[in-house]
Amino acid sequence: MPQNQEFFNRRLHSLLGVIPVGVFLIQHFIINHFAVYGASSFNAAAHFMESLPFRYALEIFVIFLPLLYHAIYGLYIAFLGKSNTRRYGFFRNIMFMLQRVTGVFLVIFIAWHVWETRVAAAFGADVNYDMMADILSSPFMLVFYIAGVLAATFHFANGLWSFAVSWGLTVTPRSQKIMTYVSITVFLVLSYIGIRAIIAFLDPALANM
Amino acid sequence: MSEQKTVRFIVTRQDSPDASPYTEEFEIPHRENMNVISALMEIRRNPVTVDGKDSAPVVWDMNCLEEVCGACSMVINGKPRQSCTALVDQLDQPIRLEPMKTFPVVRDLVVDRSRMFDSLKKVKAWIPIDGTYDLGPGPRMAENKRQWAYELSKCMTCGVCLEACPNVNSKSDFIGPAAVSQVRLFNAHPTGEMNREERLNALMGDGGLSNCGNSQNCVQACPKGIPLTTSIAALNRDMTMQSFKNFFGSDKL
């Protein structure tokens, strides 16, 4: 697309954030949630995902390439803006600032998270309940992971709101307001699922189930 | 009255476009119903700072003095607005006057808003009616639509929305909300509609509307209460449809 390159890049960035990255986020959280039913339940779910056909193609085209594009172009967007929340403390302006702060934090968090799990798996580590329980036994890592989960759910929920505006779905102030409530609900529900899974990795009783 | 009431001003000054800014404090006698412009005129008559230092008169821009031209916009106590309608009695003192730094500063409080006028040219924010012969009357506009469009036509290119926007700055060439809303205005006009896709394609170009980050400061800051974020979302929808038409093709030009 030589014409309107920037328009294309921006819209692609907006689209990829929801499909597939956002969809993958939900799927990832649901698989994680199996930890609530015990280690064997989580391991079975993780094993099922690992043994999907065309695993590498799925990983590359559904996860890594869209995620990389969204992350790198997102960093470019974030540093193009000049936050002014001190002068204009409006709700949407604070959301604008938080969207960029969580985005930059997520690049760091996800890079580390992928290194610790998927790259480790490529070098022969077994991705299972014990691996996560081991990682989360460190208090620093626990806080880092909780922050990562909350940043991801916020970034996705608020991103859904701006997706609706950027594509022209919600035009009137009323529809945008109702979309705000929808995005808050998405944030709360996904945060509950994500945090509950993290807590499940801390429970020694679940480790033997 | 034995003692004269006074008003204090802290003015950000800059001697030339490349000079570094500094502040000067002035104290002037208070008058009933004074606005920031009449205060600046008072400073101009006797440009002596509170320290007794002789200074040059403060330079600012103004024209209509009734908030319809947009020329006298400046940042007053941290908020960009028109200095003609900024009444001194309604402001906390000392009153801080700064130029709108989103734009290149010419001198003191005068900024160069050329980028806004260039943007209007870029999106063709007008209705072409010239021909080599009389084209006759254009299609009529419904009265309810005219009333609706009147709200959008209140834009005076004052620059307050650009000053409030976190995505309009020296690092980005984002067109800003004002011109976007003008595209909506002229696309809604029965004759202007004939050049609809030209304006949409201009808005889809580099530095176009897709740079909007939805902070929605513009609609809060607009002195004319123009529904700028509604215009932005409406044009996002139009651009979405236009991009499909451009790529997949359509006979509906």
UniProtKB/TrEMBL annotation, chain A:
InterPro entries: Cytochrome_b-558, SQR/QFR_C/D, Succ_DH_cyt_b558_Firmicute, SuccDH_FuR_B_TM-su. The keyword Metal-binding applies. Its main location: membrane. It is found in: Membrane. Keywords: Heme, Iron, Membrane, Metal-binding, Transmembrane, Transmembrane helix. Pfam families: Sdh_cyt (PF01127). The keyword Transport does not apply. The chain crosses the membrane at residues 12-36, 56-81, 93-115, 135-157, 178-202. It comes from the Bacteria. This is Succinate dehydrogenase / fumarate reductase cytochrome b subunit.
From TrEMBL, chain B:
This is succinate dehydrogenase. Coiled coil: none annotated. It holds the Pfam family Fer4_8. The lineage of its organism: Bacteria, Bacillati, Bacillota, Bacilli, Bacillales. Its EC number is 1.3.5.1. Residues 146-174 form the 4Fe-4S ferredoxin-type domain. Gene3D superfamilies: 3.10.20.30, Alpha-helical ferredoxin. One of its GO terms (molecular function) is succinate dehydrogenase (quinone) activity. Keywords: 2Fe-2S, 3Fe-4S, 4Fe-4S, Iron, Iron-sulfur, Metal-binding, Oxidoreductase, Tricarboxylic acid cycle. Belongs to the succinate dehydrogenase/fumarate reductase iron-sulfur protein family. Its cofactor is [4Fe-4S] cluster; [3Fe-4S] cluster; [2Fe-2S] cluster. NCBIfam families: dhsB (TIGR00384), PRK08640.1 (NF006391). It is an enzyme of class 1 (oxidoreductase).
